[in-house]
Amino acid sequence: NRTYRIAVIAGDGIGTEVMSEGLKVLGRAAERFGFRLETQEFDFASAEYWTKHGRMLPEDWFETLSGFDAIYFGAVGWPDVVPDHISLWGSLLQFRRGFDQYVNLRPVKLLPGVPGPLRGREPGDIDFLVVRENTEGEYSSIGGKMFEGTDRETVVQETVMTRTGIDRILRFAYEQAQRRGGRLTSATKSNGISITMPYWDERVAEMGESFPEIEVDKFHIDILAAQFVLHPDWFDVVVASNLFGDILSDLGPACTGTIGVAPSANINPTGELPSLFEPVHGSAPDIAGQGIANPVGQIWAGAMMLDFLGEAQAAEAVTTAFETVLESGETMTPDLGGSARCEELGTAIAQAV
Amino acid sequence: NRTYRIAVIAGDGIGTEVMSEGLKVLGRAAERFGFRLETQEFDFASAEYWTKHGRMLPEDWFETLSGFDAIYFGAVGWPDVVPDHISLWGSLLQFRRGFDQYVNLRPVKLLPGVPGPLRGREPGDIDFLVVRENTEGEYSSIGGKMFEGTDRETVVQETVMTRTGIDRILRFAYEQAQRRGGRLTSATKSNGISITMPYWDERVAEMGESFPEIEVDKFHIDILAAQFVLHPDWFDVVVASNLFGDILSDLGPACTGTIGVAPSANINPTGELPSLFEPVHGSAPDIAGQGIANPVGQIWAGAMMLDFLGEAQAAEAVTTAFETVLESGETMTPDLGGSARCEELGTAIAQAV
Ligand SMILES: CC(C)[C@H](C(=O)O)[C@@H](O)C(=O)O
Ligand SMILES: CC(C)[C@H](C(=O)O)[C@@H](O)C(=O)O
Known about the structure:
2 domains, homodimer, 22% strand, 11 helices
């Protein structure tokens, strides 16, 4: 009688296709590990909803969703109908801010059966976590334009970082490093960005005093990006500001060839408001409706959700399941060189659970 | 009787070792192509100078250097003696700002004989140029700290972009694309950074009207970083803001395995103040003094300097020379798996010119 209330928002395009497979696999895990998922589906955060209502979310979205234990999210965006900046700022980014999901967590892992772009790397060689600050920093809306329309036209945008905001993401990252028994790498640029980044470094050092057993190093973002390509095996947990984390959490999965199957967890660690779990890939209008999308990102996101809900064993089982199916290479979607359909790969993974 | 006045600043560590080889190769090119390089060496911008004078540059550095046609720079930094942020902001970054070197140009090229980290890529597959804005944007010193020492502590740093600053770097980038007969890629993040980056996009579009024959695309920086790894063959000229350019111009050379031999040109295209040419690598205290540094970065930077001075043929000859020597694999420094000394590789390249 462990019961979790899950809000299901499939969104647009392949979001709806991979969501079915995600739910299939999670349902199987619930059966096997003896818990209940009480799901409720919502049609907002989609282009269809926007067409009908002229907005991405109902007015009471916050109240509607805030009672859930988690949000299981597909993909949003359909640029032919609604521009991306409207659909994203009007839904996904609302959730991240509104529910104070200040952690964005993205695993970077070389998977069996998924070809990566780097020479000489094997599954097991690359396995780390990017911990991104998800609510402040470089993503502020403070600033503006002056001398508009003239040669002196000037735009200004402020990066705002708070001790509260930095410390809570650092604490989370240090705890992850602790949990993994490993090291922490901090992304900085204090040699160039002269106010906010030295402050970030200061807080990293200060927080480190509470975690004396964790080894910490820091890299400037330019050389860190380079090291993701040259030495991805060096990393264990990487913590970064909102913008740097955004870059690193796409670059990391690119280095493992997993950008199409990587998950993203938007977490409010207090548990007072729901966290959101989504695949990194978008709605992919170009292949939507064909039933050939790869559901692994959605399923992997589901595993992160189970882990967050406290069902670590079930999470582990789901991860092992999709890794085993990928390794066997028998049921591969077209992006992995096979001819299996989205549904078939989902079913194979559910069975492996 | 084409004569160019070159200020030579070797700096610290391996800077002094690779500089000798750079000058050797340039000297040979001058002989062959019939021009004169009038060089003058300076000992400032070095840890030794700092120890003697308590500053990185003499007070009259601007007057001393501004009459030269170009500055040929080695590497600065010796952290045991002077912290990096002092040595860099006190020298290299002074030059970039003081001489209004608003273009930072970095070639990304897969070279024969230099092993890269990406699977299945051959010399010829990857050959593009990163054009970085070098004087404004995210590298501003405007901002500060409030509520110091309390839980409400907040730091703010402003990104400042001007129409003048953006337009001049875009014009340069479009012209490079024109010169290479190719395409232009703009690095943006207008889906997340909501004021400065949409303005950047606007200027890219506006400038594009003066270059109707150039095909332009834009990528958000997160996915662009990913594409550098996944599809480096897509790019021809990539233009980016100061911070994004900093990241991309380390990431690019990482993807080609050339981070140890890549050059960087800091250009003031007006020619009214000197431009500066340097290898990307630093002073490398760990191998300094052993005579085993790889001089190709310094030599490649020299080729860019010749090109800038209008000696395109000589520049081409120097580039061909080091590519040929690398391809033969006969004279390789330890970083490339050989046992040649810095001096031997320099001499081999000079002979090939
Ligand atoms: C040392 C640092 C301030 C500098 C920069 O960020 O510009 C360096 O990374 C570079 O690219 O030359
Ligand atoms: C769509 C965009 C605003 C978003 C971000 O930058 O946060 C995306 O890149 C992501 O990482 O989820």
